[in-house]
Amino acid sequence: MAQCSVRTATLLGVEAIPVDAEVDVGAGLPVFAIVGLADMAVQEARERVRSAVRAAGFDVPNARVVINLAPGPVRKHGTGFDLAIALGLLTATGQLPRSHAETCAAIGELSLDGSVRSVPGMLAYALAAREAGVPLIGPADSSSALSLEGLDYRPVSNLAQLRAVELGTKHAVDSRLSRHLCRQLDYAEVAGHDLAKRALLIAAAGGHNVLMVGPPGSGKTMLARRLPSILPPLDDAERLETALIHSVAGLDESQALAGGRPFRAPHHSASIAGLVGGGSPPRPGEASLAHNGVLFLDEMPEFGPAALQALRQPMEDGRITLVRAEGRLRFPARFALVGAANPCPCGFRGDRDRACTCAPSAVERYQGRIGGPLMDRIDLVIDVARIDPSVLLGEPTGAASARLRELVLEVRQRSAMRAQGPTATLYGAELLRACSLSARAQRFLEDSARSRHLSGRGVTQLLRVARTIADSEAADHVEHDHLSEALGFRSREAG
């Protein structure tokens, strides 16, 4: 009888949970069994490991082989256990030295020819290994693990390389220098829409949510897709946090590692699980993939009502909590929501050139699809009218995204001098101190809240937007004019 244990991990939400792959090779009928709440992908490792071991020039033991993935109560998902199982099997049978199995963790999927492939969540596994203070053996093509500072990463491209007594170590590379972002769209290309640009500038500076209402072809999507171009790059902590979510979802994390903020634009047929996360095993949804960036919902009234209402909690808390049989899973989800909607089913209510053909009851039902509770969480609502052809064909005269980004940075720096985090996260007494309302401004706010029947959340968000507007003018106090502009954005009617 021979035994060996190799450290590995399984994903639970966006976190890698340590797992020990315990291998026991003993006398008895030839069998290859995997136990420990392993899903079908893990069970299929038996065939991949057998073929990979033979292809790499090793022997598959004609014995009773039992693999236990401990701890038993934790469900194991995915194909990342292949490399650890193979390493443990070859070590237990004396075909490899025990140095690798005893000192390192291992993650990777095996091909039938013995090559090692990356798996979703490599950055999460790398973080877990760094936290545990052990070297990580993994695939040679894992760019995310190579981008993590402080990790002793030992890449292998084929199982046969494990014969080496010492594996080569690759150190972290600076992703900001080694990678480049794709060309971003620029607001300098947009003709007209000065009011919409002003609203998006305020939203970017304060982290506010926006809804744009206008007829088809008025430029709502064009404006929304350029919003990331005026957002500041991700800082070091945000880069790692954002890249981790994309890595777990099996997406390319290179843009996040390079500092680019995510922009997610799901189709309106997206399900609740698609927006906020779920599935088996649970994976992050679009709201989490937009963490530290922009979640754009085009044709917002066409989304399912239940899916839209599922966004209410993450818009408030900046995270999504899923309760499943295996426990509570938390996914980060602090994003700027940008919605686009037509004013009515035909799309031309209030248009100066085309008449609306919708019945009033149809217009009311259509506008009510977003729902009052969700609308109460949207800070700025703006009309986006179609641009006159003479303006559209002329030279754009608006500010470029680079200049707008400088203004956003200035506003955020002023906000950071007062409190931690963006203006959109201020609340209660902290928000009132930040606003420092004059007597006239306070009277105006009280009268406006009563006349427009604003909820407590509505008053709070009105103050947040006014504070951002005041910061854009380098004002220490929120005055009447700042509140008036914020109220104009909040109370604008769709038609």
Structural descriptors:
2 domains, 4-stranded mixed β-sheet, Ribosomal Protein S5, domain 2, Rossmann fold, 23 helices, alpha/beta
Total number of beta strands = 16
* Strand order within the widest beta sheet: 11-12-15-10-16
Number of domains: 2
Radius of gyration: 27 Å
Structural class: alpha/beta
- Residue stretches low in confidence (pLDDT < 50, at least 5 long) are 173-182
Indicate the CATH topology of the largest domain.
Rossmann fold
In terms of quaternary structure, the protein is single chain
Helicity level, as a percent range? 25-40%
CATH-scheme architecture of the largest domain:
3-Layer(aba) Sandwich
Can you say what the CATH homologous superfamily of the largest domain is?
P-loop containing nucleotide triphosphate hydrolases
Question: Could you explain the architecture of this structure?
Answer:
By secondary structure, the protein is of the alpha/beta class. The chain folds into 2 domains: 2-173, Ribosomal Protein S5, domain 2; 187-490, P-loop containing nucleotide triphosphate hydrolases (Rossmann fold, 3-Layer(aba) Sandwich), CATH 3.40.50. Helices cover 38% and strands 16% of the residues. The chain is elongated. The N and C termini lie far apart (78 Å). Mean pLDDT is 89; it is low at 173-182.
